[in-house]
Write a structure and sequence with these properties.
Largest sheet: 7 strands, mixed
Strand content: 15-25%
Number of helices: 6
Order of helices and strands: EEHEEEEEHHEHEHEEEH
Structural class: alpha/beta
């Protein structure tokens, strides 16, 4: 189906250091499924994307600053990876609060590669099962998550994948979960 997400608006939260393909491919796939997608960042300045985490790629346009939006503006959220990107996001209290508000509202969220690092800072992984890039799995476990090594994991609307090789499966599961809409609020992950 080409219009599973017709009428839905999705935020992709990213900052300098984002892995380009982890932003671009989900955005394209969500748009093909009918979603309106906005790139949200710490400011409206273009963000520096990376290729293979260490090679600068093109600057990507930003639609809105995180300080000017809320989870109420969106039906779902995507957190791409790249090592520097989530590190920039988790150091920004407004970005962290924005992420947490999706969980409080029971809205679906997708995070790939290093993207779940921001979820740790938002205190929303306790009691959940997810996957990530191997280097942040200890951080996820220390925050109370059960971590598995699978291509894509869905835990009550939280979709996670390990790396760019998983993007096809990640995008397909995002579309499926985002089409379902809200999920029951997770008792552990939605409280501070």
């Amino acid at each position: 189906m080409a219009n599973e997400l017709q009428g839905r608006t999705v935020a992709i939260l990213a900052a300098d250091g984002v892995e380009k393909v982890e932003l671009v491919q989900p955005r394209e796939e969500l748009q093909k499924a009918g979603a309106r997608v906005e790139v949200v960042s710490l400011s409206t300045d273009p963000i520096q994307s990376m290729s293979a985490d260490i090679n600068p790629d093109e600057k990507l346009d930003v639609d809105r600053a995180v300080a000017d939006v809320s989870a109420d503006d969106y039906d779902a959220l995507v957190l791409p990876g790249g090592t520097v990107n989530p590190d920039n996001l988790r150091a920004d209290a407004t970005a962290v609060a924005f992420v947490k508000s999706f969980f409080t509202a029971g809205k679906p969220v997708g995070a790939i590669c290093h993207g779940p690092w921001t979820l740790v800072e938002a205190d929303v992984v306790k009691g959940r099962t997810l996957t990530s890039f191997p280097s942040i799995r200890t951080d996820l476990r220390n925050a109370g998550a059960t971590v598995v090594d699978e291509q894509v994991v869905n835990d009550k609307g939280l979709v996670t994948s390990r790396n760019p090789d998983d993007l096809d499966a990640f995008c397909a599961k995002l579309i499926e979960e985002f089409a379902e809409g809200k999920h029951p609020v997770h008792p552990e992950g939605a409280t501070a």
